[in-house]
Amino acid sequence: MYGLDILKTMGVTFGRFIMTFWDDLRWFGRRYTLQALPIRQSARGRGIFTVQYPREKLPLPENYRGFPFHVVDPDTGKSRCTACGICARVCPPQCIWIVRATDPQTGKALREPAEFTIDVSICMSCGLCAELCPFGAIKMDHDYSFVSYRRDSGEFLWNLERLSKPLAYHARIHPTAYLAEQAAMEKKAAKQ
Amino acid sequence: METQAMTDVLTSLKERFPDAVEPSEYEGVVVAPARLLEVATFLRDELGYRYLSLVSGVDYPQPTTRFPARFEVVYHLFRESGGPLTLHVHADRDDPVVPSVVSVWPAANLHERETWDLMGIRFAGHPNLRRILLWEGFEGHPLRKDWHEVYYEADKKPFDSRYPNGRPVMAEARSPLGDNLRYPPGWSPQGWQSQAEEAVYAPLEAHLGGDGRRMPTDQVVVNLGPQHPSTHGVLRMIARLDGETIQQLEPVLGYLHRCHEKIGERNTWLANMPYTDRLDYVSSMSNNFGYAIAVEKLLGVEVPERAEYIRVIMAELTRIVRHLISIGSYTSDIGVYLTGMLYALEERELILDLFEMASGSRMMCNYFRFGGVARDLPDGWVALAKELVYERLPRRIDEMERFTFNEVFRARSVGVGVLPADKAIAYGCTGPLLRASGVPYDVRRAEPYSVYGELDWDVAVAYHGDIHDRFVVRFEEMRQSLRIIRQALERMPEGPVLSGKVQPALKVPAGEAYGRVEAPLGELGFYLVSDGSANPHRYRIRAPSFANLGVLGELCKGHLIADVVAILASIDITLGEVDR
Amino acid sequence: MTTQDARLPEVPPELRNNVRIGPLDWLSPLYNWSRKRSLWPLFGGLACCAFEMIAAAAARFDQARFGMEIVRPSPRQADLMIVSGTMTKRMAPQIVRLYNQMPEPKYVIAMGACAISGGPFKEGYNVVSGVDKLIPVDVYVPGCPPRPEALYNAFLALHALWDRERISQLRWYRKDVVDEGVPVPELGPDLVNWRVVEKLGATEG
Fold first, then answer.
1. Which stretches of B360-466 are DSSP H helices?
2. Alpha-helical regions (H) of C103-188
């Protein structure tokens, strides 16, 4: 019959329309809660699929790669970075700039950065710097909130201070990786 | 490492053309330019090499082990059974000219234009040798090794300026004009006219003036794009219309030419992996796969079994994502305006959640490494994937099929844009475009890579070659992908996911390799030439959409403008890889 | 900036800014409130970021909640140009033309690393290192690509920008501001960006 296919297609849309309200009834009162969000946003969800950002935020998986940040060791108060330069060398668009510190008296190179800058307007969030850092000093952040009105006064050139975040923050956003790091450090300490 | 078939081919070539053919440095044969057309015709007609996959230009400013400094044009040929063949043709460094093989393999058309544009090698006998990715009037041929762009710092990365004394200096501050621009000395805008637009319209306007028909109708040259409400990207098409019927159609490319190949030569091998994400940006895992396979051929490294299964699962999930978008954007293009796209994007979001859990990013996954994958799957990933693949996706694919194959769709797609099988092969088309014309050619079957040879799946084929069949093939491919993923999820063993460690300054042994995968849009190939250092000597990408566009003009002749949109959507391109 | 050439549109003086708007300042909160809820983006997706922009418009993030689901393909009907993706030199004349064709009020969001500064492709010979080399940008969102939520942060930043504006100060209502549009660059031996070329002429004397 002419038009039957079109009715079937409209039936698909109509089915979704009905399911939206049906799903609302199922979740009545409990819709916008933290418990409901993972189920509604998974393969088992039905009905409306929307996340009401900024009131609701999707939880980010641990491996998520935002921009890099430095992990500040609570014992030393400084980043774990030893200015080895691997991240600067491996960065594909070359957006990491490191000045290695030198001892003011002897002129010998110290194992810490005097300056560390990342040009965030070029960073492609590939995560190779975090993956290859042998000291676990640079990790990928989960924060995507940075937005700027201008870029002519270095808003996108982030220095070491801007990039540093405490170890507790790293432990909170990367729980599995942090536990694995701790276990590896304890094993190494036990061997010695 | 040559098979018997390969040895036979080389023997028969040497017998037939004793003075024009000699073995090349790494793979294939070197052919003398004067006899190239004869050799090409012999290969196509008598040895069956009907499928030309890629034409690349390579610049050797220094002499190599056996040959002097030269420009080289490399042809990659395939046939239905039997191995691949690589032809090399050497050209003089001062005035490189090579005969054009467009008369033998029409697939060479766009590739040769690109080689002229970026490398400056002239192809004698090409019907339309104009720049394709850059514009007429651009100064220089950028892919030559001695051509440096404005922000040039050094030949190879990593740059010394970043460490150990790296104070950030914006690239703008280093360039004389404060911008990424450079004008020839003595050039001034007074009295100057841009030639770029004229050159684009010229081949069509040449034919204006009527064909001497009984009812004189006006012919008009019309521009479509580059900004238009479809999701394919910034593609521009110029059409010569007679009323509303298309007489000639030319795609104009280069609006997203981001200089992948030049930047790729400067990057290290590992650093190129995130750049490959940005080729077909919707199916980043497939691009990673192709590049990883090409480099692993050069390295000779084995991939552990768990990593192979993970790779296959990711590649097939990517195929489902890409086909969903293809179908969604087609329904959007023919007038449904976003409903179909929204349904497709919903499932895509769920699959992107999986990608994000495993690799860290929704779209730019950067997940594959040489010898495996970057990290193992997190806990709970397999359970979530099974939920999607066993329950949700099959239902949604059925629903999308009901939604798509209705009367309006059929009226606009059956019998429109028919591509016969031999034309498809001659033009180098691959992917659903080729399989819808009745040619069951799939790289996963023709040259099995990873564990595709051990899994049980079918190649989706349809026989009419019109738009409708291209979508039938896509739905069937999605179902086959689900079948593959289910088997892979069941059979995936435990074990390491990377053989060896990730090396930032990896040195790849000298040689050349052409690694190809079946990306959702067709055959994605990477032609890599290594000189033994930490950076590629030549990084050439064979993009399926670029090759498929060669046939767009032919397909659109005689159709209406509305059909052009539908035909373009059915060929399905992504500008990121067309323009690179 | 030189105006004698045919690249710029010619606005007759009697049509420039002839609206008296000072006494209506008290309506600014209502004006800004309604602007925030009906911002129509232009379908200007160039590259990979376009897909995150489409995802932001799609079911999961749903910019219809912000009144922005009307994505117009024609610049004449759009308020906001989200430059999502790398602006190449070849595409630059078209984007500037689109910007000129948008009627006031118009805003530009530079989405993604490529639009802000050329991004990872900055050194490319066909890449413009930042959209703001040619058109004025209101909000920059970094990321490669920025998540749809980050794009929403950009929309919210744009809204925050309007909270401080009063009607009498808006540039499209003021008599003293003459907007001639951005001169369209052309394709020559390299992209002919008129701002840069004039500097070249000045140095050559």
1. 381-387, 393-404, 407-413, 421-426, 432-435, 443-446
2. 113-117, 148-163
pLDDT digits (tens, 9 = 90+) for B529-556: 999 899 999 999 999 999 999 899 889 9
The C-alpha R_g of chain C, in whole angstroms, comes to 18
Q: List the one residue out of B499, B516, B526, B505 whose CA is nearest residue B371.
A: B499
Question: What backbone phi and psi angles, to 5 degrees, belong to B383?
Answer: -65, -45
**Cα B514 to the center of its chain, rounded Å:** 13
What is the DSSP pairing of strand B368-369 with strand B372-373?
antiparallel
* CA max distance for chain C: 58
CB contacts of C144 in chain A (<8 Å) are 123-125
What confidence category does residue B98 fall into, taking pLDDT thresholds of 50, 70 and 90? very high
Are the beta carbons of A122 and C119 separated by less than 8 Å? Answer: yes
* Higher pLDDT among residues C176 and C69, named by residue: C69
Range in A10-14, A111-115, B186-190, C5-9 the model is least confident about:
C5-9
Please state the length of chain C: 205
Q: Which residue has the higher pLDDT, A42 or C11?
A: A42
Neighbours of chain C (3+ CB pairs under 8 A): A, B
Q: Say yes or no: B194 contacts chain C, CB-CB below 8 A.
A: yes
Q: Is C124 on the interface with B (CB under 8 A)?
A: yes
- Using a CB–CB cutoff of 8 Å, tell me whether C149 touches chain B: no
State the architecture of A68-178 in CATH terms: 2-Layer Sandwich (3.30)
- Name which of A32, A147, A153, A155 to mutate to probe chain C: the one with the most chain C Cβ atoms within 10 A of its Cβ: A147
Q: How far is it, in rounded angstroms, from Cα B282 to Cα B341?
A: 14
CB contacts < 8 A (A, C): 87
B226 and C91: CB-CB below 8 Å? yes
Question: CA torsion sign, B322 to B325 to B327 to B330?
Answer: negative
Measured at the CA of A186, the angle between CA A185 and CA A191, to 5 degrees, comes to: 100
pLDDT for B243 equals: 80
* Tokens coding B44: 């196509």
pLDDT band of residue A56 (cuts 50, 70, 90) is confident
Reference B300, options B515, B81, B21; nearest CA is: B515
**B474 vs C164, residue with greater confidence:** B474
Query: For position C20, what pLDDT does the model report?
Result: 62
CA–CA gap between residue B287 and residue B284 (Å, rounded)? 5
Question: B293 near B444, Cβ under 8 Å?
Answer: no
Quote the longest CA-to-CA distance of chain B: 77
CB contact under 8 A, B364 and A63: no
Residue A159, token pair as written in the block: 């220095």
Report the largest interatomic distance among the alpha carbons of chain A, rounded to a whole angstrom.
93
Q: How far A9 CA lies from chain B's nearest CA (Å)?
A: 5
Residue A132 and residue B193: Cα distance in Å, rounded? Answer: 51
CB C178 within 8 A of CB C197: no
Q: Which residues pair with A104 in a beta bridge?
A: none
Cα B520-B525-B531 angle, rounded to 5 deg:
150
Q: Domain boundaries in chain A? A: 1-56, 68-178
Q: What are the tens digits of pLDDT across the range C131-154?
A: 988 999 999 999 989 999 999 999
Return the H-helix or E-strand segment holding B348.
helix B339-359
Q: Which amino acid is at A6?
A: I
CB–CB contact A144 C143 (8 Å): yes
Phi, psi of B538 (to 5 degrees): -145, 135
Secondary structure string (H, E, C) spanning B130-169: CCCCCCCCCCCCCCCCCCCCCCCCCCCCCCHHHCCECCCC
A 10 A CB-CB count for C72 gives: 17
| Window 340-359 of B, Cβ < 8 Å to C | 341-342, 345-346, 348-349
Touching chains, B (3+ CB pairs < 8 A): A, C
The phi and psi torsions of A179 (rounded to 5 degrees) equal: -65, -40
